[in-house]
Design goal:
By secondary structure, the protein is an alpha/beta fold. The protein has four domains: 158 residues, Rossmann fold (3-Layer(aba) Sandwich); 41 residues, no CATH class; 135 residues, Fumarase C, Chain B, domain 1; 204 residues, 3-Layer(aba) Sandwich (Rossmann fold). Helix content is 47%, strand content 12%. It has 23 helices and 16 strands. α8 packs antiparallel against α12, α9 runs antiparallel to α11 and α16 packs across α17. The longest helix has 23 residues. It is globular, with a radius of gyration of 25 Å. The two termini are 46 Å apart. Its EC number is 5.6.2.3. Keywords: ATP-binding, DNA-binding, Helicase, Hydrolase, Iron, Iron-sulfur, Isomerase, Metal-binding, Nucleotide-binding. It comes from Citrobacter koseri (Citrobacter diversus).
Length: 571
């Protein structure tokens, strides 16, 4: 049996807590195994390479690499989520983990000690394997070596948090190329030159030119934190010139690496990646192909170019046909207003047997929904400061024990800064350490405020008095400028549908239901949900959101919410 979840955090929860409980209750004696994608495990070979290249690394990255060398001698499974000494967003992680592109496989000198190999061997011997949707689809679509041996033996595939599948599947049915991949390729050219091929100085020249070409292309993309239309971007002559230089550089890397094939396992793997990246870039430049959204996004230093199919229904049905057996899709948020069509249509499984089960919780007694009056206008200067000031009394009255769930990283950081400046309660911020460590800190503190974004909207289970207040900054509509959303909306419009009602609204409802679901996790839980968005009660579509949420009493009086939290029984 394969059980696939929507997040690594939920994988860990199922493996460490939920499934052992179920096994004990059912007296199940079979073996359980946890398997993640290779980039979730420390790569001993790449760690050793970075340690040897230490003099070329920035001080902070070198410091983290040193800490990771120490951790590598202590960890049993190499799962990077269990490392507490290095921050989750450290720039060292991409350097010491591998991908399907750069892994040396059985040619690696440390293959026998490989944490990925050990994890997959354990999975092969197990009766129940817990994976995540990304890993499952990577295996089914691109046939990543190793994990494919698990699937033929599985008679049952269960997908928890199945509402995520359409969007994740679209990533694997599309193609992408990122500057991180290109810079990693450049670094491997450098390492090959400095270790095994010192007589091939051209490798270093290729590495330098590739890194420079990637950086030059990034400079043409404008401000960071933006996702745009790739078709429109490539109409810019400056971008065209930068892309041509990048294309020429990849061609040079391919030609130079080809001359030294067979002399270095590292360079042989780099040659394969150069071949793959050339093909991907060629495909991404073919922007007139119908049925796809062509988009790009950039951070302060990196970029990603991608194409994504507008629908995955036909391709997902092909994937299912490859593996006959029982396919079970489950989630608390598959429906919109008690209707499953939005989900089944996106995966092409309209004929599936379906069932909607009632909640075991008494929301009329256990919870209260508050949409405060006099909310500050969003996206205005000072809005984070005003919102933090409005929320501070209820957070302090509840003695923390609160999740502040945000719809953007910018708002998350701004609110955390305001809360830390004005409250004495411990304020935890997503990204400062691993998700698992953050949750441990939240639970052990007993009075903490956790400020987070998408990663904590779902797949997080905190029960009891430790969490009794969940605040959401606004309704989670995807940005209207998102090119994939734009393409899906246009496709809907061409089919005669209503893009808002059929695309934007259902997506936002499902996301909101996930965030709301963090509050009541047990029949004894009790708490308040605060949604800081007037549209929920002032716009007609707010009724669709409310009809999709649990039937909780509602108020606009934040003082009533404070009283609800203070009194053991509902008013």
């Amino acid at each position: 049996m394969i059980i696939s979840t929507g997040s690594k955090a939920l994988q860990d929860q199922l493996y460490s807590r939920d499934l052992p409980t179920v096994s004990n209750a059912l007296k199940f004696t079979g073996k359980l195994a946890l398997l993640k994608g290779r980039s979730n495990y420390l790569c001993l070979e790449r760690l050793e390479q970075q340690a040897l290249a230490g003099g070329d690394l920035p001080v902070q990255i070198l410091s983290d690499v040193i800490l990771l060398r120490s951790w590598s001698n202590q960890t049993e499974d190499g799962d990077i989520s269990t490392c507490v000494s290095v921050a989750e967003d450290s720039q060292a992680w991409p350097l010491v983990t591998s991908t399907n592109d750069n892994c040396l496989g059985s040619d690696c000198p440390l293959y026998k000690d490989c944490f990925v190999v050990k994890a997959r061997k354990k999975a092969m011997d197990a009766d129940v394997v817990i994976v995540n949707h990304h890993l499952f689809l990577a295996d089914m679509v691109v046939k990543e070596s190793g994990f494919g041996e698990l699937i033929p033996e599985a008679e049952v595939m269960i997908f928890d948090e199945a509402h995520q599948l359409p969007d994740i599947a679209s990533q694997y049915f599309g193609q992408s190329l990122s500057s991180r991949q290109l810079l990693d390729l450049a670094k491997d050219f450098t390492i090959a030159y400095r270790t095994e091929l010192k007589d091939t100085q051209q490798l270093q020249k290729c590495a330098d030119r590739l890194a420079q070409s990637a950086q030059d292309f990034r400079l043409q993309l404008g401000e960071p934190g933006y996702r745009g239309n790739l078709r429109e971007l490539l109409a810019d002559p400056r971008v065209q010139r930068a892309l041509l230089l990048l294309d020429d550089t990849l061609e040079l890397c391919y030609d130079v690496a080809k001359l030294s094939l067979g002399r270095s396992a590292l360079l042989d793997a780099a040659f394969e990646r150069a071949t793959l990246y050339r093909a991907r870039l060629k495909r991404l430049k073919e922007i007139n192909q119908p049925g796809y959204s062509y988009w790009y996004e950039c951070t302060s230093r990196h970029f990603t170019l991608a194409l994504t199919p507008l629908t995955v229904a036909d391709k997902f049905k092909e994937v299912m046909a490859q593996k006959p057996g029982s396919w079970i899709f489950t989630s608390a948020t598959l429906s919109v207003n008690d209707d499953l069509h939005h989900f089944t249509a996106r995966l092409g499984i309209e004929q599936a047997e379906s069932m909607l089960l009632p909640s075991p919780f008494d929301y009329t007694r256990q919870a209260l929904l508050c949409v405060p009056r006099n909310l500050p206008q969003t996206n205005q200067p000072g809005s984070a400061r005003q919102l933090a000031a409005m929320l501070r009394p209820i957070i302090e009255a509840n003695n923390g024990r609160c999740f502040m769930l945000c719809t953007s990283h910018a708002m998350m950081r701004d609110l955390a800064e305001q809360f830390r400046a004005t409250m004495t309660l411990p304020v935890l911020l997503q990204g400062e350490t691993s998700k698992g460590q953050l949750l441990q800190q939240f639970v052990s503190a007993g009075n903490a405020l956790l400020v987070a974004t998408s990663s904590f909207w779902e797949g997080v289970d905190v029960r009891g008095d430790t969490l009794s207040l969940v605040i959401i900054d606004k309704l989670p509509f995807t940005s209207p400028d998102d090119p994939l959303l734009k393409a899906r909306m246009e496709d809907c419009r061409l089919r005669g549908g209503d893009p808002f009602d059929e695309v934007q609204l259902p997506d936002a409802v499902i996301t909101l239901k996930q965030g709301v679901g963090r509050l009541i996790r047990d029949s004894d839980d009790r708490g308040v949900l605060v949604i800081c968005d007037n549209r929920l009660v002032m716009r007609p579509y707010g009724a669709t959101f409310l009809a999709s949420l649990p039937p909780t009493p509602r108020t606009r009086d934040i003082a009533r919410a404070v009283r609800f939290l203070a009194i053991p029984t509902a008013e």
